[in-house]
Records
---
Amino acid sequence: MATVIIPTPLRKFTDQQASVKLDAETVQAAIDRLIELYPVLAQHLLDKEGQVRAFVRIFLEDEDILALDGPNTALKSDSTLSIIPAIAGGIDL
Amino acid sequence: MANIEFSKAELERYSRHIIIPEFNIAGQRKLKAAKVLVVGSGGLGSPLLLYLAAAGVGHIGIVDYDRVDDSNLQRQVLFGTESIGQLKAEAAKARIEALNPHIEVSVYNEFLNSENALDIVKGYDVVADGTDNFPTRYLVNDACVILGKTNVYASIYRFEGQVSVFNYKDEAGNLGPHYRDLFPSPPPPGLVPSCSEGGVLGVLPGIIGSLQALEVIKVITGVGEPLVGRLYLFDALTFSHRTLKIWKNPNTPEITELIDYEQFCGVEEAKEEQPVAAVPSISVQELKQWQEESRVFVLIDVRESYEQEIVDIGGQLIPKGEIEQQLDQIPKTGDVVLHCRSGKRSADVIELLQAQYGYTNLLNLEGGILAYAKEVDQELATY
């Protein structure tokens, strides 16, 4: 099973899970499955066209998926995907 | 560089640098000759400025328009209780000059914007970005790209930190990626953590800002491998860290001029969309009068329980996120006043209850508990 690491700002949409294990053969399938599990993630992760938003990057191990095959990048059973959002401080009350 | 000289006092002060074989007097000379601009003297800026000053960076610039507030002191270790109310840049200057009298410090008590950024940044070799908002992050990045300056970046959120070195040109002339290669555009304001989700563990900016100071020193001295083309991530909760490779996007548009960053980040639009004025409201003075008259009304606090621990004006706690599950607690007749910290969340709740559940008797406390603490009861704590 692939592991998806969820960043702090999105953990409130994954029942505070810091990582989620799921079965998926490609990055796209993993994202689809993640959103199936936690539907409210969709609006934070994807734009209206269903593309990953520009302030979120997806990494397979230590490589940006855009440097690989993008959403079609194949996953292995022990792959680790990281979702990395832009953060700017978050202490602005 | 050989013409950079040190006094006896400086040699003694910096001796623990000079006796590191890889660093030695050559590294110390480079530090003394360097000009570093630190943007933001808050949580990240505190360790940055302290360590850069202590290390002997010859000229340090500080940009900050803000004043020290008591809620800063939990993490902004540059300042003490006596600094409350002072301009941060001035208080920071005094602190680091006391730490090291052999350095020069310039202050810019102003908000960095598209009009002044290039003029300020151009006088420095390296910029360290310790700001806390997206418009300034993109502004700092773009100014560094236009002027060919290295941007040592760090950012934090609650328990998590990011560090990288952007726009760094190595000795062979290869230019590393910059912030827009990683994040081409910012999150829309609605998706940025709101005030109820703010907060940061005080020691986290201490850790991340120290890493940022480390990278500034490495960039200046050429010692070690700077964090170029890589993004370092630290999660304090799990004590885990990762270093990811940043992809230099060949399609990143060329940056040729500074733009309106508030507009780019959607901040202006978000301000206009604020529904505060659109819902019926009551001022804190009126609320006080109602309380003194013992008038019958219901007061509901839509903040989180941990916020009520700081300050409470007797409202019934129903956090914003639980409102729809607790509608039976909110009467549809009689006066019902809703409040939060500043009036934004309670206005959102009223808008929702009016539109979705047919409420017509709800009033928003203008300015929230902050305004109440300021105008009605100065004994109350603010945050």
Note: The domain at 2-85 of chain A is CATH 3.10.20.30 (Ubiquitin-like (UB roll)).
---
Amino acid sequence: MTDVRTPTPEAAVTSSEPNRSRWIVLAVVLAFVALLPFARWLESYNYVLQVGTIILMWVAMASSWNILGGYTGYTSLGHNVFFGIGAYVGGMLLVEAGISPFITAPLAGLVAMITGAIVGLITFRAKGPAFIISTIALLLVIFLLLDNWEYVGGANGLSLPLAPFELSWVKVPFYYGMLVSAVLAVLLGYRVAHSKMGLALRAIAADEVKAEVAGIDTRRFKLMAYALSAFFPGVVGAIWGYSLTYVRPTAFFAISVAAQFVLMSIIGGRGTVAGPVIGAAFIIMLNELSVTYLGGSEINLAFTGLIMVLALLFFPLGLVGTLRATNKLPGWLDWD
Amino acid sequence: MALLELDQVTKRYGGIIAVNEATFSVEKGSITSLIGPNGAGKTTAFDTISGVIEVDGGKIRYAGKDITNLRPWAVTKLGIGRTFQVTRELGDMTVLENLAVAGVPNSFSSLLGGRIQKDEYDKAMEVLTFLGIEKLANELSKRLSYGQRKLLELAAVLMIEPDMILLDEPAGGVNPALLDRILDRIQAINDTGITFLIVEHNMDVVMRLSHSIVVMAHGQVLIQNTPEVVRNDERVLDAYLGEA
């Protein structure tokens, strides 16, 4: 993670104080996003809302991943495990108890969070590439477990009832569910980055031995980072499963889904608050554009890959990270 | 009164015994130097005291308390700070942020409040001023010279308000002008009652600072005594120059 800012001592003390112009721009953007479901005159209203829902979901997930993979420097290639766990918790509570995932989503997040802490106890025995492999192993283990667990539907998964909303605005509650999750996930990322915990996590990312010797209980902070980073994937997993009306291992535990967490953060700017937001929006929109203009063929995948390679070639620290390193980051995007 | 005691401490790496039943002590308020030729086990002894590596045998006591194989953060919280032979500053952080790391509570309460509190800022500036590097407060630590990084490491240690400081080669790679300042500051810190254990190759520095010297060779402690006695001990000369 790179942070090349050199704040004045006063700024270092008061760095969490809001910058007025920054907040005005962000408030306008947020208002636009919040009011989007009211733009029913749009020709492709449902499509726009669906893409918006997906972007917001990934903003929540990439921002969460960034706490572990960005600030702490531990790359997880199995974070969709928590996405899937959230979907199963929300789905099972809907099927068995009839409780809406909109209500149980925080509980799904909590289960994901506890799972994250337990998993961390095991996987943090490894570092570097071994840690990455251990997270992939976790993904495979959970996939196999749920794929063979008949109580939760096995390979067929769970079929969920349709949400009891008027068909013409059925997507709106999901959109707002994702919006609330995304905003809270970004706020959590912001809080972590601007707190002493963020300082500890950055120290761990830079030099774990040095961080320990400075008095930081690195094991505890890594577990806290893992648990926090698992919460919102669990929350949005519950909402997304409800939106799909099914929860299947293949839909949630694919390695391609795991890669999205990493790609979005890296393209946007790993270890920055704004990076995962920009990365999520960039990649989802890029995917949509390539599918629209190149069709759902392999050409669109090649095109998406090429753009990502070029993005990293010219923005090696991600879009936000590189712009900041070159002092070209607009103030309204500097959330660190 | 001994503040730190190593009792028969042993550390093995496979078939190599890096520290072999080392026994020595550091008096409270003293500056004790740990010397010996390369490969004597000095830094390994440091690592065992600070918890960076676990010992295979023996006991380490600090202020009468058994601290053998405590984790580094726990050793630090007891009041033992350390620096490294090759500086390990947190490069992408500013000097101030490097110092503020010392004030992080090990709990979820670390999510509350800002990165650097006002009182921490004041304390950090006081420490930096004491060491003469206050103008570097906002500089990224990776942009500092090597000597300035040595001072930054010492500053970071002072932020934990230690009772004992382990310095690994404070004079190594430092220009003479800066070295004088470092030695002067070590003396001034020691005058406030803080105990030092120093690994150092520069014999002028060792003789100038030390109240007591521990000599190690091949992982074993050869002698612990005053500089005057150590200077004339035949075993020490043999260890450095080889037996005749």
Note: Confidence is low (pLDDT under 50) at residues 1-11, 13-17 of chain A.
